[in-house]
Design a protein that fits this description.
By secondary structure, this protein is of the alpha/beta class. 33% of the residues lie in helices and 25% in strands. The strands form 4 sheets. The protein has a 6-stranded mixed beta sheet with strand order 6-7-8-3-9-10, with helices on both faces. The chain is globular.
């Protein structure tokens, strides 16, 4: 259904090939997993396979892409191609335009010219299978990251194309959401749909996968059935995270007052209860993981620690400061937040300037040393003069940590720090966090992954419907 023949591509204003001599075919009823480090060419391969590079991008192109036996250059435009290929990008915010979830899905269906009856049938079906029925009247911008991702996936699936190209479709989904999408993709594959998917959750998707293609520097490093690919040591590290041997567990500093404390904290978004009576105490030096399903209140809770949200009811005390009243700049000296999507943090023209912004804003002395130390801690010293958006996904995640670390807060809060990262990159990020803990920082990690939380944190707090439902401390070292 799709074939790439000796496809190479270099983006405008660069001489480096993002893809180099890629030959690959995707058949009806087949599911191929594309894997590799950040910057290896995964997203570019998706754009090439969908015909988007040909119709929307400049740059240097070579080779041929065929969709349903027809050269993508022979399709009139992307609208013409979209009748054959459904594509989901790795940034859901870039695909959300309308005022409600229902309108997002309807807009795609109505452009395809379906009858009113078929539109209603497809809408109802896709809302059900993606678990969005209760959210159909909600504005997409008010949803959690995982909920937004389900909306974009629903819009893509509603079109009913025979070819699906999915770039990180479950990266921001919780375990329940991921499992429901895997079941849905299995049904679509059984119907004969062809699926090209970029994902980091290999073990969750394993029952679907016929072939794995591991990219390295724009080339195919290894390709074949899963058993063959997993025999390649580098490929295995990319596909299956291993956090063994990273640092040692600590349970915080006993005998001191907690660095963060909430008392019966409650918060509402309009008429929706996001937090309900949360009581929490975090000691200095702890590594705490906060887990839960999408919309359980994890991100809402940690935003209170830096003053981005103020309590509706209850109290939040951060390093002795009343977070309900303290200026955000004061709280920033104590707590730094690395957002779920690091790209939302970047605006400067160089890595150095990006990190220096927070240092200058807080008036931290010895600017050069503060920035240099932060870049060294995340192993980005050599990238100090590069444009931030030229970095790979994993490098950008490390840069986001450096931006916060340079402001020298006692507490680092990281919201989904391993999202979109392969196994090797995820291990790198966790290793940085453990090293920071060993140096005295308190680490709070928000994650969908109970496996990562259980392997890496000293304490795992589980949230459900805005409440803490369990709080378990590690009894042994994770080393």
């Amino acid at each position: 259904m799709i074939s790439l023949e000796s496809v190479s591509y270099a983006y405008p204003r660069t001489d480096r090939d993002a893809l180099a001599g890629i030959t690959l075919s995707l058949a009806r009823g087949e599911c191929i997993l594309i894997a590799g480090h950040s910057g290896s060419g995964k997203t570019t391969l998706c754009l090439a396979a969908a015909g988007i590079l040909e119709h929307e991008y400049g740059g240097k192109k070579a080779g041929r892409v065929m969709v349903d036996g027809k050269d993508v250059r022979e399709y009139a435009d992307l609208s013409d191609l979209s009748s054959r290929v459904g594509i989901l990008f790795d940034d859901p915010d870039s695909q959300l335009l309308f005022t409600t979830v229902e309108e997002e899905i309807l807009s795609a269906l109505e452009r395809r010219g379906f009858s009113p009856g078929e539109v209603e049938e497809r809408l109802a079906r896709v809302l059900s299978v993606t678990g969005l029925e209760a959210l159909r009247d909600r504005p997409p911008h008010a949803l959690s990251g995982g909920q937004k991702q389900r909306v974009v996936l629903a819009t893509t699936l509603a079109l009913g194309t025979d070819i699906l190209i999915l770039d990180e479709p479950t990266s921001e989904l919780d375990e329940q959401g991921t499992e429901s999408i895997v079941r849905l993709l299995a049904e679509l594959k059984a119907q004969g749909k062809a699926i090209l998917i970029v994902e980091q959750k290999y073990e969750k998707l394993a029952p679907l996968i016929d072939r794995i293609v591991v990219l390295e520097n724009g080339r195919i490093r290894v390709e074949g059935p899963p058993a063959t690919v997993l025999a390649d040591e580098v490929a295995r590290r990319v596909l299956i995270p291993d956090f063994s041997g990273i640092g040692t567990a600590k349970n915080g500093t006993n005998g001191e007052s907690p660095i963060i404390r909430t008392g019966t904290l409650s918060f509402r978004y309009g008429e929706v209860d996001a937090l309900s009576g949360v009581d929490l105490s975090i000691a200095r030096g702890e590594f705490v993981a906060i887990v839960g399903e999408n919309g359980s209140g994890k991100t809402t809770l940690v935003k209170h620690f830096i003053g981005l949200l103020r309590p509706g009811k209850g109290t939040v005390v951060v390093d002795g400061k009343d977070a309900a009243a303290a200026p955000i700049a004061d709280l920033a000296h104590s707590v730094g937040l690395v957002f779920q999507n690091p790209d939302h943090m970047f605006f400067a023209d160089s890595v150095f300037d990006e990190v220096a912004f927070g240092v200058d804003n807080l008036g931290i002395p010895d600017r050069e040393k503060a920035v240099a130390d932060a870049l060294s801690a995340v192993r980005l010293t050599a990238a100090r003069d590069l444009y931030p958006r030229w970095l790979s996904r994993g490098e950008r995640q490390r840069l986001a940590i450096a931006c916060v670390l340079a402001m020298q807060p006692a507490v680092l809060v990281l919201d989904e720090p391993t999202t979109g990262l392969d196994g090797t990159e995820s291990r790198d990020i966790i290793g940085i966090m453990k090293k920071l803990q060993e140096n005295g920082h308190t680490i709070i990690m928000v994650t969908h992954s109970r496996e990562i939380a259980g392997q890496c944190a000293d304490r795992v707090i589980r949230m459900e419907a805005g409440r803490i439902v369990s709080d378990a401390r590690a009894e042994v070292s994770h080393g």
